[in-house]
Amino acid sequence: MRKFLPWIVVGGLLLITVFWFVSIKNGAVRNNQDVNKEWGNVETSYQRRNDLIGNLVETVKGAADFEKSTLEAVTSARASASQVKIDPTNITPDQLAQFNKAQSGVSSSLSRLLVTVENYPNLKANENFLKLQDELASTENQILTARTRFNEAVQKYNNYILVFPNSMFLGNYKEKPYFDAVAGAEKPVDVKFNFSNDKK
């Protein structure tokens, strides 16, 4: 029995090493899946905003004299943003920056539209428009939350794959970029109106 003891010890150590390696790999998979899930939530939030913008544009079109160029800018920015697709498993800083830029363009054009609405008292009193503006404000907050949670998931994933000794076994797992804020991204789109200045 004693002559087999070294082999038993070696076998036990190998078994422990295998389980440890499997545990590290499984942890990387779980963290990667968390990032994918949070990215899905980001896309869902932006998709909801795009849907609301479509409804908003249709409502605003009801004002016959509404500025056509403003509507076209919103529609164009929305269409451009919809073309930017990202695979979270292979996301790069450039891809995320492109996505961020496209969504920022939507926010800017939407802000201009909402400011322009100030000149149209009938629109400001339109119940459908008022409901859409409230939903947009809520969605902007959801977007901010989704982006924050995505960054938190990325931080956890990056920390996991980059720390030693995990990094020794996870060379095929690449560091993922964070969602950087764009100018004004820390604030939701301002959809409040000054009703006291309505034209009589």
Number of strands: 0
Mind telling me the C-alpha Rg? 25 Å
CATH fold-level assignment:
de novo design (two linked rop proteins)
Poorly predicted runs of 5 or more residues = 189-200
CATH architecture: Up-down Bundle
How many strands, which pairing sense, and closed or not: the largest β-sheet? none
- Distance N to C terminus: 102 Å
Count the DSSP helices: 6
> DSSP strand (E) fraction?
under 5%
Structural class: mainly alpha
Percent range for helical residues?
over 70%
What does this structure look like?
The protein is mainly α and 200 residues long. The chain has one domain: de novo design (two linked rop proteins) (Up-down Bundle), CATH 1.20.1440.20. 70% of the residues lie in helices and 0% in strands. α1 runs antiparallel to α2 (68-83), α1 packs antiparallel against α5 and α2 (68-83) runs antiparallel to α3 (93-116). The protein is rod-shaped and about 95 Å long. The N and C termini lie far apart (102 Å).
Question: In short, what is this structure?
Answer:
The protein has 200 residues and is mainly α. The protein has six helices and no strands.
Record keyword descriptors for this entry.
single chain, 200 residues, mainly alpha, de novo design (two linked rop proteins), 70% helix, 0% strand, rod-shaped, disordered C terminus
What is the topology?
Elements: H1 5-60, H2 68-83, H3 93-116, H4 121-124, H5 127-162, H6 166-169
